[in-house]
Amino acid sequence: MTLEKAYEILTWTYDEPYSLYSFTGDQEEFLEFMNGSYFYVIDDKRNLIGYFCFGESAQVPAGHQVNAYEENFIDIGLGLHPNKAGQGTGLAFLKVGLAYAIEINGFSNVRLTVASFNRRAIKVYERAGFTYEKSFTKGSTNFNIMIKKKSE
Fold it and tell me: Chain centroid to CA 151: how far?
């Protein structure tokens, strides 16, 4: 992640009901993006189209209170540019992130966390081989933990 790309991502806002994924642009979010676990993705015209994060940065902190992340998995988080979301590119984008996760971590079990209302993302994750594992709630939002084991 570069300073320029982090600042650009922090300007992204998503329409309802996906506003949960929008950023405020505050210093804490910026520092998170610069912690070494975030990677930006550009297209062949060098346009920023999304980002991936791995490890603890890909986890929702409230999930730790209910032991949602107790098993040994690589956690992956992702964000697609708001103009690209819902355009049918999610599966290809996810596959890029999974390939990179495997490249830097070796082939392993992968886990992600998604808001349960985000049906379009869940459909993409299921098409990529992820299955529902468990849920937890933070405030009024329910989150699903989905996993993809290396044998799948």
Answer: 22
pLDDT in tens, 97-144: 999 888 877 767 899 999 999 999 999 999 999 999 999 999 899 999
Nearest to 41 by CA among 30, 53, 49: 49
* Closest to 7 in 3D by CA, of 59, 37, 42, 48: 48
Provide the token pair at 131: 């299955």
Residue 44, SS3 per DSSP: coil
Tokens of 55: 């490890």
Please provide the size of the chain in residues. 152
Structure tokens at 5: 């790309």
Task: List, in order, residues 6 or more apart from 59 with CB less than 8 Å away.
Answer: 68, 69, 75, 77, 113
The reply to whether the predicted model has a pTM over 0.85 is yes
Structure confidence by residue, pLDDT tens digits, 32-45: 999 999 999 999 99
CA distances from 34 to 37, 42, 77, 81 (A): 8, 17, 15, 18
